[in-house]
Structure to design on (266 residues):
């Protein structure tokens, strides 16, 4: 395993252990509302602080872009993109599906990725050009080629309701043509599941870089494709993400295209 990934795994596991300590007592946690339908707990904050502490110990000069504490560090430094708890709504409801997501971006490219599911003890890792692993075993996207056979993942735009109509148009274009759609509530795990062949495709609008950065590299290194809704590479900026096996990704884009509003064409 690449030394950078080793450190990232240490940070992700430490955050995961902290999250697990609270899993059975979420009712004692103070839940704060950041925005409409956007909650944060002290677990998100403490897990993030723990990740940053571990990364900074080895890489004091690296920059940080973290969901709860924002951006810090020089523009030209390698940057850690951190979601300490992806799936907070699941977590606060005791719905057992969430993850820690860490990616290292350098010169505009994601170089390393870690997504850790502490409940299942599943560790997804990838380094550019070196493939994707689940608990140190190589993973590949599925061999599914027809949308009719594909199980898709998605996320609903529960915060950005302005995207709801446009999103529903894409849902209408894909759902009846697929073999099923799942909304599990953690975009980082959705992408990791595409990488592992558990889902054949995924799409969501309005995501943040920390939801997507690690999962996107996992999909690419597992032989899949990730793009924005126009088929381009602006997905970290626009937050509109389509991922899948090469055939399913192409088929999803083709079916969605006629229904895209101006805001979603990128
Ligand atoms: C959210 C999850 C969810 C997705 C949202 C994300 P959070 O992240 O990934 O699946 O639908 O768009 O914001 O807030 O739980 O870290
Ligand atoms: Ca997230
Ligand atoms: Ca989060």
């Amino acid at each position: 395993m690449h030394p950078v990934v080793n450190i990232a795994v240490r940070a992700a596991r430490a955050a995961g252990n902290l999250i697990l300590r609270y899993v059975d007592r979420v009712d004692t946690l103070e839940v704060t509302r950041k925005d409409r339908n956007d909650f944060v707990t002290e677990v998100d904050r403490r897990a993030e602080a723990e990740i940053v502490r571990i990364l900074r110990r080895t890489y004091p000069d690296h920059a940080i872009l973290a969901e709860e504490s924002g951006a810090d560090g020089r523009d030209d430094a390698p940057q850690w993109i951190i979601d300490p708890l992806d799936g907070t709504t699941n977590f606060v409801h005791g719905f057992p599906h969430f993850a820690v997501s860490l990616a290292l971006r350098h010169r505009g490219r994601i170089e390393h990725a870690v997504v850790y599911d502490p409940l299942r003890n599943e560790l997804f890792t990838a380094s550019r050009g070196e493939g994707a692993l689940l608990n140190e075993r190589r993973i590949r996207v599925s061999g599914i080629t027809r949308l009719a056979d594909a199980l898709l993942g998605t996320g609903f735009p529960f915060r950005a309701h302005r995207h709801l109509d446009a999103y529903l148009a894409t849902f209408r274009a894909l759902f009846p043509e697929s073999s099923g759609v799942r909304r599990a509530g953690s975009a980082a795990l959705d992408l990791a599941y595409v990488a592992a062949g558990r889902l054949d495709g995924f799409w969501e609008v309005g995501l943040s870089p920390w939801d997507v950065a690690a999962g996107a590299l996992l999909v690419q290194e597992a032989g899949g494709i990730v793009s924005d809704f126009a088929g381009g590479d602006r997905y970290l900026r626009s937050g509109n993400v389509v991922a899948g096996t090469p055939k399913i990704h192409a088929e999803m884009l083709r079916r969605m295209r006629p229904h895209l509003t101006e805001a979603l064409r990128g």
Summary: Helices lie at 3-22, 42-58, 88-93, 164-174, 187-195, 209-221, 235-238, 246-256.
